[in-house]
Design a protein that fits this description.
By secondary structure, this protein is of the alpha/beta class. It has three domains: 2-150, no CATH class; 172-219; 225-380, no CATH class. The protein has 16 helices and six strands. The longest helix is centred in the last third of the chain and has 33 residues, at 278-310.
């Protein structure tokens, strides 16, 4: 064990405080809960007895070291001619406001018996030192001393930080629904599956739930859905266009499949040979594209409309997104014709240049309009 004196807030020797109270603070009341000692404990002999009882009950508790350090400080001040008394005050195991109120009441009781005009705080960590402002309400604090075990300070802080974040993960609903909720669902389903004997099938369900949870959190899907589903006109527009767009995008797959010539797909053909056949791929894409583009356009248009109604200054990017979606359509359509009809690859250049030109012209016009609007706002301001 080593004793290290903290930074002195006020030099005792230069102070006008000649009646000092050495206060050992035990904010979580280990001295009461573990050793059964009623606080405040006043006087050297009573404090020594309290420290011994606490050390016997829990030799690893640092509060007994703090009490002995307070007694040593008391002896040093006595030798220098000060009028000194040493006391132990304790709070509550739950800490918080109750602990601080209890410490304040105990110090007032001590001051009724020993009218000190200055206090020296002795503690074993920052948790106990957090009550210093409370003590200062009734008695000036002239010095703060901290007592720690060797290399225990970093461990203490690590435990404090770990406990803080662990408590946040457990009690904060924003985090607990993923940290506790998802594992809880998985364990519950796994337990039921073990009882009914469908372990293999349920394992696939558990993996699917876990994968879906990772995707939802990784792409912030839950927050986006909550913002889209808010009971406002903008929220309803986003929700409707999102659902309609997703349904259209999904329906583009069977539309593309129905476009493929059934004679090209052999019954015993392997999947790899089907997806590498350029004619089949071209027919599938050409059949899926119209509905796919309508679905994506529905989502983009819904975002544009909701932002415009809500006054959110993102219309330029939203409009450009819709324009690019329309400008790139002829290029992909020509690509499918090249795949199906073996047309020359150079036929892809005209629609590509046309789409690029439309995109650049639209972007230029929109940014000029936006800049002009900003300049007018600055002039009006």
């Amino acid at each position: 064990m080593s004793q290290r004196t903290g930074e002195i807030e006020k030099d005792v020797n230069a102070s006008t405080s000649n009646k000092l109270l050495v206060i050992c603070v035990d904010r979580d009341n280990d001295v009461g809960d573990k050793a059964g000692i009623i606080t405040p404990v006043i006087g050297r002999d009573a404090c020594i007895e309290a420290a011994q009882r606490l050390a016997l009950e829990d030799p690893e508790d640092a509060d007994s070291n703090s009490i002995f350090a307070a007694i040593k400080t008391y002896k040093d001040l006595i030798s220098k001619g000060y009028q000194v008394e040493v006391v132990i005050v304790a709070g509550d195991k739950n800490r918080g406001v109750q602990a601080d109120e209890k410490i304040l009441l105990e110090i007032r009781k001590v001051l009724e018996k020993f009218s000190a005009n200055g206090a020296i705080i002795v503690s074993d960590g920052e948790d106990d030192e957090s009550v210093i402002p409370v003590i200062q309400n009734v008695l000036p604090v002239v010095s703060v001393q901290r007592v720690v075990m060797k290399v225990s300070r970093s461990v203490e802080y690590s435990y404090a930080v770990f406990g803080k974040y662990l408590k946040m993960l457990v009690y904060d609903s924003k985090y607990s629904k993923f940290v506790l909720g998802v594992p809880g669902i998985l364990l519950l389903i796994g337990g039921v599956a073990t009882v009914i004997g469908y372990t293999a099938e349920i394992f696939a369900v558990l993996v699917s739930i876990l994968g879906a949870t990772f995707l939802i959190r990784a792409f912030d899907i839950d927050r986006k859905l909550s913002s889209w589903s808010k009971p406002t006109p903008m929220g309803f527009i986003r929700m409707f266009t999102m659902v309609a767009g997703v349904l259209l995008i999904l329906s583009s797959v069977p539309a593309g499949v129905n476009t493929v010539d059934s004679e090209l797909v052999k019954v015993d053909a392997q999947f790899i040979s089907i997806i590498t056949d350029k004619i089949i791929v071209g027919q599938f894409v050409s059949g899926a594209m119209p509905i796919l583009w309508i679905g994506m356009g529905s989502i983009f248009a819904g975002t544009l409309l909701s932002n415009w109604m809500g006054g959110i200054p993102r219309q330029i990017s939203d409009i450009l997104r819709v324009i690019v979606l329309g400008a790139i359509y002829p290029t992909i359509l020509q690509f499918t014709k090249i795949m199906i009809n073996d047309e020359p690859s150079l036929t892809l250049i005209p629609p590509l240049l046309g789409g690029l030109a439309v995109t650049l012209i639209s972007a230029t016009i929109l940014f000029k309009k936006y800049r002009k609007h900003k300049e007018q706002e600055m002039i009006s301001d």
